[in-house]
Amino acid sequence: MGAVAIDAMHCISNEQDWEIHNAIFQSYSKFSIAFQLLDDVLDLNEDFAKNQFNWLFMCYFQKNGHHILNPSQMPVELKIEILQLAECYFAEAKQLLPDKRSCASGFETAIDYMSQSVKKVVVLHGRGI
Description:
The chain is mostly helical and 129 residues long.
């Protein structure tokens, strides 16, 4: 849905600048990946109960050669690793935004907010919560 909004903004803008459109779209792509990684850490129990794909389950399987039997067994270190990966994607999303463009300022604020959220979750998981 975000991609549709970006395309719609491009269509109704007066500038019709494809360079700006592509930069925002690339930023959104990185943002979406980061957001999904954060969501997978936060929704671990729910995803397990619903047998949904979760990046942590896949990483656990790749590292251990078997599926996790209980989400409470998920190593905190793996959660933090995924959260740090999300932080990297949020940083890349911010770097890709065009400089000083009003169309990107709200998105930049959202990226900053989500990046701060990741840092808070890392602290909580570091404490074993």
